[in-house]
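Q: My labmate handed me this sequence with no annotations at all. I'd like to see what the chain might look like in three dimensions before we decide whether it's worth expressing. Could you predict it?
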Amino acid sequence: MIRDITLDPFVPLMALAVIAAVAVLLLAIAAWRGLSGWAWRTLAVTGILIALANPAVQEEQRDPLTDIVILVVDESASQSLSDRPAQVAQARAAIEAQIARLPDTELRVVTLGDGADNRGTLLMTRLSEAMANEPRGRLAGAILLSDGQLHDAGVVPDLPAPLHLLMTGEATDWDRRLLVQNAPSFAILDEEVVLTLMVEDQGAVPADIGDTSQIVVAIDGGEPQTYTIPVGRPIEVPVVLPHGGMNVIQFTLPEARGELTARNNSAMVQINGVRDRLRVLLVSGEPHNGERTWRNLLKSDASVDLVHFTILRPPNKQDGVPVNELSLIAFPTRELFMEKVDDFDLIIFDRYKLRGILPGDYLNNIARYVEDGGAVLFAAGPDFATADSIYRSALSRVIPAAPTGIVIEEGYKPHLTETGARHPVTEGLGGLMSASDEPTWGRWFRQIELEPRSGEVVMSGAEGRPLLVLDRVGEGRVAVLGSDHAWLWTRGVEGGGPQLELLRRLAHWMMKEPELEEESLTATAQGNTMTITRRTLSEGDRSVEIEAPDGSTSTVELDEISPGRYVAEFEGAQMGLYRLTEGEQEAVMVLGPAAPREFEETIATGDKLAPTIAATRGGVFALADGIPDVRRVAEGRPAAGRGWIGITPREAYLTQSTSLKPLLPPWAWLLILSALTVFAWLREGRR
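A: Here is what I predict for the chain of 687 residues:
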């Protein structure tokens, strides 16, 4: 039971103040004029004012409330290193036991793990959430059980009580990590790109560790290469991307003796390889309607550098014009076809036939160019079926289809073959989803009959005869289009067709772009979800084996969503490099960073929290030195000392009931005031 004196005035406080002011003024005048009895009148007026203020006794029935101490236990990934889990368990048990022994004190234990989306340890955010769930007036203190490595130090809650850090870790802890300070997201193929790396040592580094480290470099999970680099200063690493599309470069440091973890010894760099320019050599035979179409298609693409070699006057044409008047300068044929042929990404032979203009050595060099990794497209016209066919040259060894000598002159619509419906060059071309779909594009009216010797027939023409044949020759790629009427699609004859899309896909397939590979295993990542795509020309069920960063493996079944395309989704529980295998196909994919934010800094420290803790008069204690005692301290006093931490009792309570009784009943006030007034009158009358 708590009793207190309070006021419950009969009139508003403002009116009471006015009455008091008037009374004081009148009494002051009476005293100044020396009127007799003014002192007794002052006593009477004072009694009247007190009566009007109505002093009362307030009684409260209170139930005391317990003080609350919040213990935030950091269970993020960095807390799993070394013997930190044992330190956490021991310290938590000790704090729980000590708080339990304190009277009228409760402990609230909250935990936190790694922040979503690799945001690290959100220690202050978790403390703020815990405080929001408790009455502020009962908070007697907060204790953080952590390594002190947090990533939201700027989110400081307004804590009305001491804050303490019980720090895990050992004074001898040290760690080595690999940093990628500069890495572009894309780079030009065949051009050098420079990455900036640094190896950094943290903590109590042993004197015998040395100032150099080995580093292992692997591209797309391939054969690793080892180099020696210095520790503690940035180094520039020049890299030339091996292929177009996404290149995954993995840098790994061997685990050093005694370091806390090897999880931050790896770095992944994903660089998209793009071509600066596509260098194309268009070799035209005699002029025809489709020649300008080929030229316009290639010139319309700003990323294409086109060299057009065309024969305007064949040697067998006799028009009386002297040879020395045919051109102002000699065309650099030898330089083009012998010395510079390897500079081209793609060579197109459009209705070219043997006329003695390009010697056999030139054509043999082009065949060598294909075998060494070049790309050639043959757009065949009627001459391909004659004795002057380019097939009758050294190029025959790289051409996958031989002419039968028959030229078909009739209207037909190009169709996709069963293989073509699965091949990325023709898959879905013009909206066709299978070989049985009827094309909506216009007809062609000429076809050279071909007899495939190798490769894949992806399009057919009149009566199902091979129309487009694709083949891999040595390191290069070859395509044979058995018609010179593709230009009808560009001109819009009978509605036209997707010639530009077909040419673009052909060129990219020949350039070995990963997205156009017919046998491929790729993956893309969105957060922790990996979308796996397997493309193949063969049929049958497919499954992919996935190796996680920790070495564990799992198998995922793939679903065929379209001919030759199998897809599955996989949720990765860990961040880092995943290796995918399906048959002979392999791929690598990175989910999140190779080294999560939790492992960027692993050495325990109190520096990040020191300003916040000092503002609450709390303390930072290393658990390696022992677990401090918990004491009660008065508010405003230091809350930490040698071997102890303090909490501030809040003395909070809950009011169950309240009663208000007048100090004196009204009749008592009336009697007292009447007596004072009469006494003052009598005293004044005697004078």
